[in-house]
């Protein structure tokens, strides 16, 4: 017998999920969506099933802010296993090369890590969601097909060595969007002459969000037993994803015309760039872009004005 469909709600906000090990980002997203009975939900950058940590889940109109979090810098804590290169660049893959780990000490490792700081080139791995001729690379990889990939520039803002214990290295990485940590680990292993793969990976920051406010799935499931209002109390406001952006407050008449899709003139506004838009009562309207003539053009407006 089919179970009745759960009613869906228009609920808006952001949950900072601590994604568990062994669960795909989409599966975690769907579980959060069901718990909140949300009509609409999206996440802000996939984590591999074997990775854990910060996965911001946007509900309702907050999904309009998700693209800005996708573009944000990220931080990771990584355990790298030296001496073994795998088919996937992580612990899930089969070993394809095993080499001795010799002469890898703290000073040498720090020199190698310094070489990977700044703007670097990375070749995306075959086990990735990048599409070639409409086909995700990971599907080709599962068929044993390897295709040529174009390198891309990413920025490693900082790599901090946390621990070196034999053939295990633990580092913290601050990086730009689009950085493949598995590729970084493999390239570090090649630079050391022994090969390497990611043994453990945990995301600790995404844009303005850090791990301090993360909530595990089981904690959300326990809170759900107390009712939807208790769950809703955990939501962060939509504009928290853009905490570092300047604010623009609009008088009522300007807010009205802006919500009709018109650019409006504002006083004492920043020159150029993205801004957060509010009414004079500090109700969030969405995001806009400052024009050279002192007007602000609406770009992503929320349908439910956030109080």
The CATH topology of the largest domain is given as: Pseudouridine synthase
Radius of gyration: 22 Å
Strand content: 35-45%
Characterize the biggest β-sheet. 10 strands, mixed
Name the CATH class of the largest domain. Alpha Beta
* Number of helices, counting only DSSP H or I runs of 4 residues or more: 8
Please tell me the overall pLDDT.
90
- The tally of beta strands, per DSSP, is 19
Tell me the helix content.
Answer: 10-25%
CATH architecture of the largest domain: 2-Layer Sandwich
Structural class: alpha+beta
What is the assigned CATH homologous superfamily of the largest domain?
A: Pseudouridine synthase
Strand/helix succession:
EHEEHEEEHEEEHEEHEEEHHEHEEEE
List the helices and strands and how they pair.
Blueprint: E1 13-19, H1 25-36, E2 41-43, E3 52-59, H2 66-70, E4 74-82, E5 84-86, E6 95-98, H3 106-115, E7 118-122, E8 131-132, E9 135-136, H4 137-142, E10 152-165, E11 168-175, H5 181-192, E12 196-206, E13 209-210, E14 215-216, H6 217-224, H7 228-232, E15 247-250, H8 252-259, E16 264-265, E17 273-279, E18 284-290, E19 295-306
Parallel strand pairs: 1-14, 3-12, 15-17
Antiparallel strand pairs: 1-3, 2-3, 4-11, 4-12, 5-6, 7-10, 8-9, 10-11, 12-13, 16-19, 17-18, 18-19
Helix pairs in contact: 1-6
Can you walk me through this structure?
The protein is an alpha+beta fold. It contains eight helices and 19 strands. The chain has helices spanning 25-36, 66-70, 106-115, 137-142, 181-192, 217-224, 228-232, 252-259, and strands at 13-19, 41-43, 52-59, 74-82, 84-86, 95-98, 118-122, 131-132, 135-136, 152-165, 168-175, 196-206, 209-210, 215-216, 247-250, 264-265, 273-279, 284-290, 295-306. The strands form four sheets. Strands 1, 2, 3, 4, 7, 10, 11, 12, 13 and 14 form a ten-stranded mixed sheet that branches. A five-stranded mixed sheet has the order 15-17-18-19-16. A two-stranded antiparallel sheet has the order 5-6. It is globular. The mean pLDDT is 90.
């Amino acid at each position: 017998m089919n179970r009745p469909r759960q009613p869906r709600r228009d609920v808006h906000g952001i949950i900072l999920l601590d994604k568990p090990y062994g669960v795909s980002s989409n599966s975690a997203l769907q579980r959060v969506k069901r718990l909140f009975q949300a009509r609409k939900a999206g996440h802000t950058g996939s984590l591999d099933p074997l990775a854990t940590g910060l996965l911001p889940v946007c509900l309702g109109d907050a999904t309009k802010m998700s693209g800005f979090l996708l573009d944000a810098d990220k931080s990771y804590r990584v355990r790298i296993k030296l001496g073994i290169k795998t088919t996937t660049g992580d612990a899930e893959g089969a070993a394809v090369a095993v080499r001795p780990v010799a002469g890898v000490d703290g000073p040498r490792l720090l020199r190698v890590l310094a070489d990977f700081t700044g703007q670097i080139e990375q070749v995306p791995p075959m086990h990735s969601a990048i599409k070639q001729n409409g086909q995700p690379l990971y599907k080709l990889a599962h068929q044993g097909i390897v295709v040529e990939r174009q390198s891309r520039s990413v920025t490693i803002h900082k790599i901090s060595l946390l621990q070196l214990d034999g053939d295990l290295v633990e580092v913290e990485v601050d990086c730009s969007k689009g950085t493949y940590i598995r590729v970084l680990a493999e390239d570090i292993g090649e630079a050391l002459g022994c090969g390497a793969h990611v043994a453990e990976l945990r995301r600790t920051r995404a844009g303005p969000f850090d791990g301090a406010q993360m909530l595990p799935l089981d904690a959300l499931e326990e809170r759900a037993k107390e009712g939807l209002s208790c769950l809703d109390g955990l939501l962060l406001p939509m504009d928290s994803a853009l905490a570092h952006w300047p604010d623009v407050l609009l008088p009522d008449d300007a807010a009205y015309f802006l919500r009709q899709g018109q650019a409006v003139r504002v006083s004492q506004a920043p020159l150029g760039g993205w801004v957060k838009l509010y009414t004079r009562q500090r109700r969030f309207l969405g995001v806009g872009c400052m024009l050279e003539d002192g007007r602000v053009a609406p770009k992503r407006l929320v349908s439910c004005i956030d109080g």
